[in-house]
Amino acid sequence: MAFRDNYDFELLVNEAERIIIEELEKQLSEDTENKICKCQDCVLDMAALALNNVKSSYRSSFTGVIYAQQLYDGKYKEEVTKSVKRAIEKVKKNPSHEVE
Ligand SMILES: [Zn+2]
Fold first, then answer.
1. What is the tens place of the pLDDT at every residue in 55-74?
2. Residue 6 CA to ligand 1 centre (angstroms)
3. Which residue segment(s) compose the domain that 54 sits in?
4. Within a domain: residue 6?
5. What is the C-alpha separation between 14 and 67, in angstroms, rounded?
6. What is the Å distance from ligand 1's center to 63 Cα?
7. Three-state SS string across the chain, please?
8. Looking at the domain assignment, is residue 98 inside a domain?
9. What's the pTM value of the predicted model, to 2 decimals?
10. I need a labelling partner for 23 at 20 to 30 A (CA). Which of 9, 32, 47, 52 fits?
11. What integer is the mean pLDDT of 34-44?
12. CB atoms within 10 A of CB 83
């Protein structure tokens, strides 16, 4: 039996991913003039860029939920906000497709 078949690695949760996606949704919703492309490619690029610039925060079970709550406050949240902002700017200037 292969190692990966013995354990359910799907249970690993990266809390950073959840927080980044929430923050991305929030910041993109503030683009009321619709200056930022929100196609699948661009939004996923933004999420990937933002995620690569923050510390990942994996938990392996529900016992990590309380720890995860702490991520919503303070310095980490600040990093997430900045990272998402930078990612949006970067993709806006240099989208992975032709600008229409
Ligand atoms: Zn796009």
1. 888 888 766 666 666 676 78
2. 40
3. 12-93
4. no
5. 12
6. 38
7. CCHHHHCCHHHCEEHHHHHHHHHHHHHHHCCCCCCCCCCHHHHHHHHHHHHHCCCCCEECCHHHHHHHHHCCCHHHHHHHHHHHHHHHHHHHHCCCCCCC
8. no
9. 0.83
10. 9
11. 96
12. 21
Residue with the two structure tokens 């600040």: 78
Count of structural domains within the chain = 1
Distance from Cα 38 to the centre of ligand 1, integer Å: 6
Q: Tokens representing 44?
A: 């996923």
Question: Does 51 reside within a domain?
Answer: yes
More confident residue, 68 or 26: 26
Sign of CA dihedral 27, 28, 32, 37: positive
Specify if 30 maps to a domain.
yes
What is the 59 CA–ligand 1 centroid distance (Å)?
32
What are the residues whose beta carbons fall under 8 Å from the beta carbon of 39, sequence distance 6 or more?
A: 97
Task: Summarize the confidence of residues 85-91 as an average pLDDT.
Answer: 98
